[in-house]
Amino acid sequence: MTDTHTGGDVRLSGIGKTYGSFTAVHPLDLTVPQGSFFALLGASGCGKTTTLRMIAGLEEPTTGTVFLGDRDVTDLPPYKRPVNTVFQSYALFPHLSIYENVAFGLRRRGIKSVKKQVDEMLDLVQLGDKARHKPHQLSGGQQQRVAVARALINHPQVLLLDEPLGALDLKLRRQMQLELKRIQTEVGITFVHVTHDQEEAMTMADTVAVMNAGRVEQLGAPADLYENPRTTFVANFLGTSNLIEAEVVQAGSDIAVTAGGGTLRLPADRCSADTRRGGKLLVGVRPEKITLAHADDAGAIADGRNRVTGRIVDTSFIGVSTQYVVDSPAGAALQVYEQNIERDSRLTPGAEVVLHWNPAHTFGLDAAQDIDAGVEKVEDAA
Ligand SMILES: Nc1ncnc2c1ncn2[C@@H]1O[C@H](COP(=O)(O)OP(=O)(O)O)[C@@H](O)[C@H]1O
Ligand SMILES: [Mg+2]
After folding, report:
1. Is 169 exposed, middle or buried (0-12, 13-18, 19+ CB in 10 A)?
2. Residue among 239, 199, 232, 198 at smallest CA distance from 217
3. Which ligand is nearest to the CA of 50?
4. CB-based contacts of 239, cutoff 8 Å, min separation 6
5. Which end of the chain has fewer surrounding CB within 10 Å, N or C?
6. Is it the case that residue 337 has pLDDT exceeding 50?
7. Ligand 2 centre from 231 Cα, in Å?
8. Ligand 1 test: best mutation among 22, 53, 215, most atoms within 8 Å of CB?
9. Residue 331's beta-bridge partner residues?
10. Could you report the per-residue pLDDT of 147-178, keeping only the tens digit for each?
């Protein structure tokens, strides 16, 4: 399929939205490169849908400008923007066949010969054999693919997707993530995908913007965000991080800190805080970067590794890995994920252990922030 529209990034310049005295989206600048798969990720209520609706023209921004390419579309009504939206509730026309649902946008524009384009779209979403079915005869995932085909047939410059997989069960959601990614790669249209599911955002997107309370906290490629979070919110919201309160004892290209009576090291280029004047630092390490050794084997740990002693308080076996919770003088409830290769039967609750990891896998964050920001609470869990 070829896109007949030429050019253009989605560019938000100082776009903000207030409702009365409440600020849903603080003025933000954001560029979504043409042809990219871009995810807006954040917890419920952080302003994702509002941002998306301002791009679509469904919500009038309080401040700022929306550009598509060089064109200012801020004052254009939704139907005049080269943008289509797919919502969580796919809202297919129940009395129309799948074929007619997909054809709808073309028919509305008075186009008579739709067959070639509809067939092409149904092939794209792999539903060619379902053309004569009605929506209720399709699974949730298939219906959502029809919704995507129905939007794409209008050749939008940008497709906006607002939690499109939210109603699907986990396994189907995983399949649809890959399917949507394939479709986006095939058509090359800019996708802006809103989700609260961090794995979904990382799986699908080229670039993820992590939103928190109406602001973009950090933006980047999934691996970069994951490896180098710059705030505690991003460190905790995107996967799990162990954050340890530490005191800087040596600055420079190699930073040394003390925590819980021991010394830890980290590279300065992985530290987003200024350490030149010493002071406090939050030291972070991901659970899968840590190796767990029984205290009796501590002597065998290679020199130069960061190490923290502690006691196992909980273990859970989850198939590919075992997850350990360790209390330590450096921090309570440190998380360690060990792949299940050879399991050490001594690593049970109560066991004295040493956590050790490569200093290169350590990052540093400014200590003047809430260490628990972005931690998912039980009542938030879907
Ligand atoms: N029409 C509205 N009037 C008042 N507040 C609104 C309105 N729409 C959204 N909000 C508020 O703005 C915030 C952001 O909402 P929304 O963009 O829907 O968040 P998200 O999609 O990230 O869950 C929420 O606190 C929500 O309650
Ligand atoms: Mg929303």
Report:
1. exposed
2. 232
3. 1
4. 198, 226, 286
5. C
6. yes
7. 23
8. 22
9. 328
10. 999 999 999 999 999 999 988 888 889 999 99
